[in-house]
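User: My instructor asked us to take a sequence, write out its structure as tokens, and then describe one feature of it. I'm not sure where to start. Here is the sequence I was given:
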Amino acid sequence: MCKTKKLHISKREMPEDSESSSTATNTDFLSRFSNFVDQNLQLIQRSVYVAGAVVLIGVGRHLRLHHRFTSSSDIPPRFYQQNVKLLGTVRHRDKDTNVLSVSHIPPLPSRFVSLFTRSHKEKSNEDLLKVSIAGVQLTKSGENWIDINIVNRNVWFKLLESPENNFIPAIITCRIKKYPVRTNVNHLLVQKGFGRVLDRYDEEPTSQIYASLRSQLLSAEQKAVKKGKGDWENKSGWKKLIGWKTVKRLFKKKD
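Assistant: Let's start with the prediction itself. The structure tokens for your sequence are:
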């Protein structure tokens, strides 16, 4: 009887010993792992940074965030469809067409990407995008204003539709003195009387954002004409009065 009792007791104690040994093994593993992390913390951090940089570069290359566009054909068609905003520096204004020559600035620096790529070709600074101020026909006053306030400055230009004759129609925004936030240059030119709404459509524009811009420009032009701002100053007064009288006569005849 005593032997059987001892046998049962030893069998009951065996699981407790196995559990304690497994707990000791887990504790030992955790302590070794924590010691490894403490000793190689900087190496682990650098590895995470490098992995993140590689992923960022991969995404950037897919979205062409490192590529500097030098012509309208370089820009992917989806950029025009999604009305993407691009950053660039206005180098000069073409005196014949009033189109802005813009040096595109990519979001991701090309030098940083070249460290992880095999080949990298620098683009010439002479390769510039031809960006037109969408919906606006500049007057002489507008040309002077552009030369003073926009040339040699960074601007954001929002792509509206596919280019015509390599001219990219865009909404130009820029930080200008006396304005606390970035200003819509297209709207400001018409508002000041330095530009007129360009009548380039026989029908309404197909692009919704272009149609919205055109309606805003037309509203700004009407206000500029009424107030005689900018180049509309010489066309105010009695000439506008004659115009209103003519319109009234036409309505009276219809009645």
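For the description part of your assignment, you could build on this observation: Confidence is low (pLDDT under 50) at residues 1-13, 113-123, 241-255. Try explaining in your own words what that tells you about the chain.
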